[in-house]
């Protein structure tokens, strides 16, 4: 398991490329949930998501030989842009495999960062299998979006920022797809403040972490159907599953309808547009049993 110094070292690396995303207090979501709610707006991050943290940290730690072979990654969109941006900054060739129905804006943004894009399959898992095939064929170095400790380490830098800005945070709600984000945040946050609660949020139609916890083993869902395309993952990562079991206090699932409801509140009250995967944690506020807590 990662230690606090790992996250602190990762923070020095990612600080070279990330934008500051200070917490935003939300009167609307606070009133609705009867908690004091803060939003960590990683949708305003460079490339539009937190994924740049893990990707950049991973690629920065690679040796020259690994980088010279070229990188390959599979992604539903945000990891793709994170890898493409990091590769461009470090002068490395990158190939990204994305599901065929990835929103065009994400495909174009990835191409604009200089990566080669291959569209394949219906969901993330299909794209992953294709990427593994291409890796074997061409000898690329694989940059996994969540089942990788260097990536987990990079994502965990978010927890350092949250607890530096709000040391008395009681609960951190974290979206869950493959589990890399929540693994990093949960581990780093608990190392700094063991009493903080970490709660994962999954779409009802793609709750692979909850299924794994319920059965105490990794299970593959038959399908992943949700408007939160960035978290439409059928199988939780092996490493994230270990971190989730050790550091995560619970998982909430939300419906697509509940996502839309939270989306509209965010747009109306904060004039912020976020994708549905990011809104998972806001949608979960209504299902939080605790009151009068500081929630991020």
Q: Care to give the gist of this entry?
A:
The protein has helices at residues 4-14, 27-33, 51-61, 64-68, 78-90, 104-112, 124-138, 149-155, 157-165, 180-192, 208-215, 238-247, 256-270, 276-283, and strands at residues 24-25, 36-39, 71-74, 94-98, 116-119, 141-142, 171-175, 197-203, 250-254, 294-295. By secondary structure, it is an alpha/beta fold.
What does this structure look like?
This protein is α/β, with parallel strands linked by helices and 296 residues long. It folds into 2 domains: 189 residues, Rossmann fold, CATH 3.40.50.1100; 96 residues, Rossmann fold. Helix content is 48%, strand content 14%. The chain contains 14 helices and 10 strands. The strands form 3 sheets. It has a 4-stranded parallel sheet with strand order 5-4-3-6, with helices on both faces. The chain has a 3-stranded mixed sheet with strand order 1-2-10, covered by helices on one side. Strands 7-8-9 form a 3-stranded parallel sheet, with helices on both faces. Helix 9 crosses helix 10. It is globular. The chain starts with a helix and ends with a strand.
Keyphrases for this structure?
14 helices, Rossmann fold, 4-stranded parallel β-sheet, single chain, 2 domains, 3-stranded mixed β-sheet, alpha/beta, 296 residues, 14% strand
The number of helical segments is 14
Strand residues, percent = 5-15%
Average residue-wise pLDDT: 96
| Count of extended strands | 10
> What Rg is obtained from the alpha carbons, in whole angstroms?
18 Å
Distance between the termini: 24 Å
Structural class: alpha/beta
- Proportion in helices: 40-55%
Tally of discrete structural domains: 2
The CATH architecture category of the largest domain equals: 3-Layer(aba) Sandwich
